[in-house]
Amino acid sequence: MDSFIRIITLFSALSLLILYLGAYINPNDYWYFGIASLFYPLSLLANIIFTIYWMYRRKWIFLLPLVIIFLRVDYVFGYFRMKIPPGETTESFRIATFNAHEFKEIDYPHPYIQDDAWEKLILKIHPTIWCLQEIEGMKLVKGSLPKSIGLNRAAHSAEAGLAIYSSYDPIKTESFVFSADNGFQYADFRHKNGKIFRVYNVHLLSNQITGMAYQISEGGTVPERKDMHLYRKMLSQYKQSIKTRTQQSQILADHIAQSPHPVIICGDLNDTPLSYVYNRLRKYADDAFLAAGNGIGVTYIGPVKGMRIDYILPSKTFKTLYCRRYSPGNFSDHCPVAADINWK
Hints:
The protein is α+β, with helices and mostly antiparallel strands.
């Protein structure tokens, strides 16, 4: 029995090691490395189980999965962190990002959310800068609500479905549309200490597999023959999406590299921390949740579980004091993320 489990342990450890490569291999060259990150939670759990099993059996092979887990332990910390909220400072400001799901409830038939639900959420988070994606339904809720907490619309792109609200007056703004409902925009702000910084609001192409995933999940745990067509279609769609998203991220990264000011990248990247896209952008910024996260890091709560795809990435000019996600209630399959940022 131990011989068989030893083989499975070796296979599991090797699989996790291969998953790590997805962060460094361009999906346009080898696209299947791009999909590998979706399996990280399962692979991590399997290696933890094998580590515990072999430790209980007092066999030195427990070191193999343990060492491979710790090779990129930062990925593990992306799922859960513990940070005591700091006291208020005069220099810090709160920035938030949220894919608003067009302000429609996620339950079928997707009615628009009630005004009081939107009001409770924004008052709970109370950001200084608020980056929104998928905002098409905002005109049907209390679009003037941000003004009640001192936020004015700083940048808006109806075609890309993006908006930035801020209590700071924008110095310069610009938007870039990749296709309907995705692109990026930026706004330059002057902090009250006189320093200028740039906020990027980003929504990269989604995988567009949510509907198919829901269909499969409704069929039970054992795939039926009719589901195999959906699996193949999902794989093909994911392949095309990840290649397009990689190209979009290059355009974004080139723009960030030319920014004359420190940057804070916010938004829905539709990719995990094990992805090439995420690691390309991390060249220019830290991850607020890894730096000072509190609670669960998973931000996507749709049918494909366990993914962190919504981020706040401040450049190294800044220090993250605190970062957490919030429950979106019933009106989005994404969780809002907010971070308290200060200058170093």
